[in-house]
Each structure stands twice: as C-alpha cells, then as structure tokens.
C-alpha cells in the first residue's frame, strides 16, 4: 500500500515537472518509478495523475497525497536525523524560526553562551519564517519559534520570555519629539515605515491607529532595521519598534522613542515549541537561558 517512496515520487514529480526528472533525483529508473505508481493506483482504485499532452496533472487524489507528502516527509526526515544523532552520541540540532525581526540581536546574545554550554547541539536560525512560523512549527520545519503573537493551538505551547513596550520612534528634531506620548491623530500627516508585514499583524495599526479610525499619510515598508532607523533619523518618516531596540540605536542615531497613547502598548515575546518536545533537554535549556537574557 502507501509507502514513503510513493510520497517522495509525488513530491518530486511536482518539483521536477516530469517522471524522468523525479527518477533522476530519486536515483531509480523511470520504468521502475512508473510501475510502482501504477501499482499503487491499482491498489487504491484511484488515479493520481492524468496525462495532458507531455505533462502530468495531479488529480484530486494526487493533490491530497501531495499535501500529505509535504506534511509527513519533513517529520520523517527529522525523526531519522534525530535517531541518527542519538546513535552517534550527538545531542541534536535546534532550528529556530523568527517572527520577530527586531529580536535577532537579542537572539545573538543567547546563541553564544548556549553553544558554549551545549557543544554537541547545532543551531540554525531560519529567517524565512519571520512572518508566518506557526505552520512551520506544526509541520516540523523548525523546532522553536520566536514570536510576539502566539497562536494557541493543540500540540503547541508558548513560553513567555520577556516584556517590552512598543513605541513610536521619531527624529530628535521632529515636532512630536517633545511630547510625552503620541495620539493616533498625530500620525495623520506622517509617513509610517514598517517591516513588510500584513497590516493586521502590525501593533501600531491593530492596537493604535485602526481602533481610532486613523490611517497615516503614507505607509512605507523596509526590511532592515538599520535602514529603517536611518530613514527616521533623517526625517523621512516615523516607525513603531520595541523601546529597548530604539534606545540601543539612540546612542548612534538622532532618534527618540514616544509611547503610543497615554498608557502605551505592552507586548511580550514568546518561544513556541511543540508539546511533544518540551522535555528535550537541550531545547528546554535554550528556553531557560532565554528567560534570563534581557534584550537591553
């Protein structure tokens, strides 16, 4: 019946575009691959592909099996990797996904002492999950997620590691710089610079501007913190960032932080892990070290 090789074939045919390409990647003959898949179709009583001209198109059943392959194969790869590491006396690897762009510098403060304490653990930071890592955690593509916006799902747990205030950062000579805090109306004439994140995931929008029915004059996105704050310092716009990060840059740039509203916006950083991994010693040690490492 359905075996791992069948999932690999479906995945590789989709990636390579043909049975020939999949056969080359999987190091089998095309005829053997074709025979294996026809036998599976006969056993299941359903077509996986339909040929259209020279190309193969997945049927509804084929699309379902492709989704299964994309979900299950990474989990099998991870299981084999960890079992091999255990067999070789190694601890394992820790793959960290980032949903908090400014937290990268905080993360660096943890990684160095962690690597010294756990010499047999490899650490890999995957920034492609900056803005959508819950699925990667569920699908075993990462082992730990740094996020300010936990999504509490069955099988996941989120450990709070530190609190911070989200603030508006402006140039020191900006007209708003002398105010104790800013109100939503103050941003009507401002260019708001943010990371390239969906608006509904930006605190400055969903907790400050949108409840007041306010939008800024213009919204501009920039990927890097350094460039973003250079733009702010030169009077090209304002931005919303963690207070600890703004104060760190304020030593070298003419910028200043202002509370968003009279009460400010309080946020927390969480580390998300899978429930089943909670007792893995090297992962637990990373979480405990993160709790004691301040971003400031």
UniProtKB/TrEMBL annotation:
The keyword Ribonucleoprotein does not apply. SUPFAM superfamilies: Periplasmic binding protein-like II, Winged helix' DNA-binding domain. The keyword Repressor applies. Keywords: Activator, Amino-acid biosynthesis, Cytoplasm, DNA-binding, Methionine biosynthesis, Repressor, Transcription, Transcription regulation. Its main location: cytoplasm. Pfam families: HTH_1, LysR_substrate. This is HTH-type transcriptional regulator MetR.
């Amino acid at each position: 019946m359905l075996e791992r090789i069948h999932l690999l074939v479906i995945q590789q045919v989709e990636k390579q575009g043909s049975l020939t390409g999949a056969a080359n990647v999987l190091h089998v003959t095309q005829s053997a691959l074709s025979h294996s898949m026809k036998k599976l179709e006969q056993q299941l009583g359903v077509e996986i592909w339909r040929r259209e001209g020279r190309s193969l198109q997945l049927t509804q059943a084929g699309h379902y099996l492709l989704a299964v392959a994309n979900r299950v194969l990474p989990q099998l790869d991870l299981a084999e990797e960890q079992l091999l590491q255990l067999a070789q006396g190694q601890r394992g690897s820790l793959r960290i996904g980032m949903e908090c762009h400014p937290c990268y510098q905080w993360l660096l403060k943890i990684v160095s002492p962690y690597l010294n304490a756990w010499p047999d653990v490899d650490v890999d930071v995957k920034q492609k999950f900056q803005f959508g890592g819950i699925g990667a955690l569920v699908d075993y593509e990462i082992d730990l997620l740094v996020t300010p916006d936990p999504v509490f799902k069955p099988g996941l747990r989120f450990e709070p590691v530190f609190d911070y205030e989200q603030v508006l950062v402006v140039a020191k000579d900006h007209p708003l710089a002398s105010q104790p805090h800013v109100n939503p109306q103050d941003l009507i004439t401002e260019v708001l610079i943010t990371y390239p994140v969906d608006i509904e995931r930006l605190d400055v929008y969903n907790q400050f501007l949108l409840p007041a029915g306010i939008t800024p004059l213009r919204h501009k996105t920039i990927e890097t913190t350094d460039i973003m704050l250079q733009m702010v310092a030169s009077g090209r716009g304002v931005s919303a960032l963690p207070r600890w990060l703004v104060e760190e840059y304020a030593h070298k740039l003419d910028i200043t932080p202002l509370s968003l509203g009279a009460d400010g916006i309080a946020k927390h950083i969480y580390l998300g892990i899978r429930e089943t991994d909670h007792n893995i010693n090297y992962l637990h040690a990373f979480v405990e070290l993160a709790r004691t490492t301040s971003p400031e």
